[in-house]
Amino acid sequence: MHIEEIYEIYLQYPSIQTDSRKLQKKDLFFALKGANFNGNLFAEQALEKGAAFVFADEKISINDERIIHTGDVLKTLQRLAHFHRQQFNKIPGVIIPFIAITGSNGKTTTKELIHAVLSITYKTYTTEGNLNNHIGIPLTILKIKPDAAMAVIEMGANHLHEIAGYCEYAQPTHGLITNIGKAHLEGFGSIAGVKKGKGELYDYLKAHKGTIFAYDDYDYLHDMSKGAAEVIWYGSHATGSTKRNDPFLEIQLIDDTIIETKLVGSYNLPNVLGAIAIGQYFVVPAEKIKTAIESYIPSNSRSQLIEQGSNKIIMDAYNANPSSMKLAIENVAAIKNDNKVLLLGAMAELGEESLEEHKAIADVVSKYSWKAVALVGGDFLKIEHPYLSFENALEAKNWYGQQHFENSTILIKGSRKAEMEKIILP
Question: What percentage of residues in the chain have a pLDDT greater than 90?
Answer without folding.
Answer: 88
